[in-house]
Amino acid sequence: MASRPVSHGFQGEKHPATSLILLLALAFAGAVIMGTLSAFIGFITLNRAGSLTGLEDLASATTHTGFLKILQAGFSIGMFILPPLLMEVFDKPRQRYLAFTTSVNPLLWPMVLGIMFFAGPLFEQAILLNERLQLPEALSGLENWMKAKEAEQERLTKLLLSDTSYWGMATSLIVVAVIAAIGEEFFFRGCLQRLLSRWFNNPHTGIWVTAVIFSAIHLQFYGFLPRMLMGALFGYLLLWGKNIWLPVLAHFINNATVALSAFFLLRRGRSFEEMDAGLQIPAYFYFISFVLTAVLLYQYHKTATAQNIRYNGETLD
């Protein structure tokens, strides 16, 4: 008797790796094209405003807040927003990556707001835990490189948020909160998480692997743990809620909170270091934060499940 072929789960359909290669190619092309274009636009804008006097000042433009915002916006649009949109056009057979129109129970929106509010102290604890971690002496070279990258990213963030005018606050929110939230959720949760979930045939594995990649790509290694946990949270908001705008809202709340906190602190003559120091919170408050976050997540899952069964006749896990 002839033996039957072994199925690997992708017979008759394209392997997710093929789509992943397309996504990365589009991201690379978008980053190069939009990064170059935004740098040109930024230089022309500053030159007309009198902030620069010629090409010889191009190097100094990289420390100009306005130039950095234009460059960051263009880079994010090219690398994170356009590729997911193009994937739904170019990826054959057509895949549905960005669930823009999936029906959402209105109760989920305030739940997302509550989850991000109550989870804040838990993320702060994760930051403190992450900062205490040290690599073995044998990896001191790697640790020094990580610290240098951390300092570089911190300098960039401070420059982006250093404008204390109300116009500066508005542009900071657009670049740091709106564009970043839309782009990173479209790319990581909308595309990468879906592709990895198909590849591993397990949505939970897809969520956590995506969360690790999401955190690592920021090159802020002493914030790796909290960003990974936040990425996983965004992943479950999408898995259960089935609409990409739910994790986009959560991401926006997180980034906007940082931008607005920096703005009001700087307006009052205080420093970024004071914002990083945070508030002294009693230990029991973290337990309350954990309980309230867990309750809201449970209720979010329950509400989203009922909504999804009602409209699609299917469960979420």
What are the salient characteristics of this protein?
CAAX prenyl protease 2/Lysostaphin resistance protein A-like domain-containing protein; Rce1/LyrA-like_dom; 11 helices; mainly alpha; transmembrane helix; 317 residues; transmembrane; membrane; 2 domains; disordered N terminus
Number of domains: 2
Mean pLDDT: 84
Percent of residues in helices = over 70%
Structural class: mainly alpha
- Strand coverage percent: under 5%
- What is the ordering of alpha helices and beta strands? HHHHHHHHHHH
Uncertain parts: 1-8
The backbone outline, from C-alpha atoms, is globular
Number of helices: 11
Alpha-carbon distance between the termini?
39 Å
Profile the largest sheet. Answer: none
Computed CA radius of gyration, to the nearest angstrom: 22 Å
Describe the structure.
The chain is mostly helical. The protein has two domains: 16-95, no CATH class; 100-132 and 165-317, no CATH class. The chain is 74% helix and 0% strand. It has helices at residues 16-48, 58-61, 65-90, 108-132, 140-160, 166-200, 203-216, 224-241, 245-267, 272-277, 283-312. α1 runs antiparallel to α3 (65-90) and α6 (166-200) runs antiparallel to α9 (245-267). The radius of gyration is 22 Å and the shape is globular. Mean pLDDT is 84; it is low at 1-8. Keywords: Membrane, Transmembrane, Transmembrane helix. The chain crosses the membrane at residues 20-46, 66-86, 98-123, 166-187, 207-224, 244-266, 278-300. It comes from Parapedobacter composti. One of its GO terms (molecular function) is endopeptidase activity.
